[in-house]
Structure formats: structure tokens, C-alpha cells
Design goal:
TIM Barrel, about 15% strand, about 40% helix
Length: about 280
């Protein structure tokens, strides 16, 4: 069976709580051998850690930009302490999900940047890569990375080719998921097709960013026509779409993206079978 790593999956999300064990079992049956579970706030640090150990996966600890309105500076101290406390845990693979978001309304720009920079510093202090949230924010993310260099994964990448190349030059891999299955996502599909193969990793962002076959409009959701919930079991079909864009056998994409994930998050190498 072709084996995949889902490099970004929120298994602890409320939408998956009722049947999370079945969700993970379906993923395993589909060939998803490993999931990376990023935290989004201090309150779910422990849940992602326990879930990663329960399912044989890995986790990251960080404060998401969308959570910065409720976060306190003391949360950065709690993150620092958690990273130190679990430093010897091989399943702790990154600081994340961190970053900047200029799509969601009402976020304080200065506050977002403060939390992003401080978490870059913590990643450097603890010798960990980062998982970065990129939404209309690539240039500012890159600006801070030039001051505080890090490597890792630019999650759900949707920037320009020039921005993609800048991230890759800094040592980042770029995450592609359900958005690449939409015919109208022209820029994302061009990047998925044209970037060097060693720049790509696969992800679902479950339960978010569903592929086109799960997508429901707001009107459909109101009418009760399915919730469009994404799951890591969708990754192989998403990856098939990316492989077709590249004219590449799907097994070759699986092998390459697994290798790339282990380069981006080095602790993964001890947790997944070599390819």
C-alpha cells in the first residue's frame, strides 16, 4: 500500500470529537501512516500531546494567529515551559501552528506579529522547526524569518511563485491539500504542478479545507446537505489530484513527500518507516 504523512491535521478539533478513533482508523486503512497534530492555543497543548501518543502520531505546540486575541503574554511562558518539559518526547516535532493571518477580520496586526516573533525565538531556543500559518501574509512572515531564521513547513501555502521560492530558499517545505483539487484554484494548482518535487509536503488540515468532492456552500450547509467535514483519510485522493497535475505516479509523490516531511520535521524520521 502507498504510505502517506498528513503533515497538518487537527484531530482534536470539536468536529471530530465524537468519532476521532474511527477517523484515525479510516486514515490508517487508506494508507495515512502518520499525522502531525498542531496545537492552536495553550488550552489544547495537552490534548494534542495525548492524542499523538494514543494514535502513534506526532504533535506541535504553538499559538495560532487566530487565537492571539484571547492569548496572554504569559501563554508564551507556558509554551516555553511545555517545550522544555517535553524536550525529550520524540513525538514533539515542531513549534506550531504559528504565523500571521490577514484574511480574518478584526485581528490586531501588532499583536499577531508579537506572538509570531516570540514563537520564532522559542523555536530557535528549543532547536525545533516551525509550522507556519500563511494566509495573505507571506511577505511579512518572510520578513520576520529573515531576522529570526527557522525552517519547517509553510502550511496550506497559497502565495505567489516568488514567495514560494523565498520560503523554499530558507529551507521550508510547502503544504498542499484540499484546495489543490479545485479547478478554479489556479495559482495553488500551478504551484503544486511546477515547484520542485522536493519542496512539497501533503496535508489535509482536517477538519478544514475540504477537497472539492466534500465542499458544501453555505446554503447547502444551512439546508442540512452534509457538513463537508474533511478527514485525513481523504489525503490519498487529494494527493492523486496533485500527482495528476505533475504527471507523476502517485507512489512517487508519496515517497517524495514522505522524505520531504522528514527533512522539514527531522524527528519524524524516527517515527515513520524509511522510504
Amino acid at each position: 500500500m502507498t504510505v502517506w504523512i498528513d503533515t497538518h491535521c487537527h484531530l482534536d478539533a470539536p468536529e471530530l470529537a465524537a468519532d476521532v478513533a474511527a477517523v484515525r482508523q479510516r486514515a490508517a486503512a487508506a494508507g495515512v501512516a502518520h499525522c502531525v497534530l498542531p496545537a492552536v492555543q495553550v488550552a489544547n497543548f495537552e490534548s494534542v500531546r495525548l492524542m499523538a501518543h494514543q494514535f502513534g502520531d506526532s504533535y506541535a505546540l504553538g499559538i495560532h494567529p487566530l487565537c492571539t486575541p484571547e492569548a496572554h503574554d504569559a501563554d508564551l511562558d507556558l509554551l516555553d515551559a511545555a517545550l522544555a518539559r517535553h524536550a525529550d518526547d520524540p513525538r514533539l516535532v515542531a513549534v506550531g501552528e504559528i504565523g500571521l493571518d490577514y484574511f480574518a477580520p478584526g485581528l490586531d496586526d501588532e499583536r499577531q506579529q508579537h506572538f509570531y516573533r516570540e514563537q520564532l525565538r522559542l523555536a530557535r531556543r528549543h532547536g525545533l522547526p516551525v509550522i507556519v500559518h500563511v494566509r495573505r501574509s507571506a511577505d511579512k512572515l518572510l520578513k520576520h524569518l529573515r531576522d529570526l531564521p527557522a525552517t519547517g513547513i509553510a502550511h496550506a501555502f497559497n502565495g505567489s511563485l516568488q514567495q514560494a521560492q523565498a520560503f523554499v530558499a530558507m529551507g521550508f517545505k510547502l503544504g498542499f491539500g484540499g484546495a489543490a483539487t479545485f479547478d478554479r484554484a489556479l495559482q495553488i494548482r500551478r504551484l503544486a504542478a511546477d515547484l520542485p518535487l522536493d519542496a512539497l509536503v501533503m496535508e489535509t488540515d482536517s477538519p478544514d479545507i475540504p477537497p472539492h468532492w466534500l465542499y458544501r456552500t453555505a446554503q447547502q450547509r444551512v439546508a442540512g446537505q452534509g457538513q463537508g467535514r474533511n478527514e485525513p483519510a481523504e489525503l490519498p485522493r487529494i494527493a492523486q489530484a496533485v500527482a495528476q497535475l505533475r504527471g507523476l505516479p502517485v507512489d512517487a509523490l508519496a515517497q517524495a513527500t514522505t522524505r520531504n516531511a522528514c527533512v522539514a520535521l527531522p524527528r519524524l524520521s524516527a517515527l515513520v518507516a524509511p522510504v
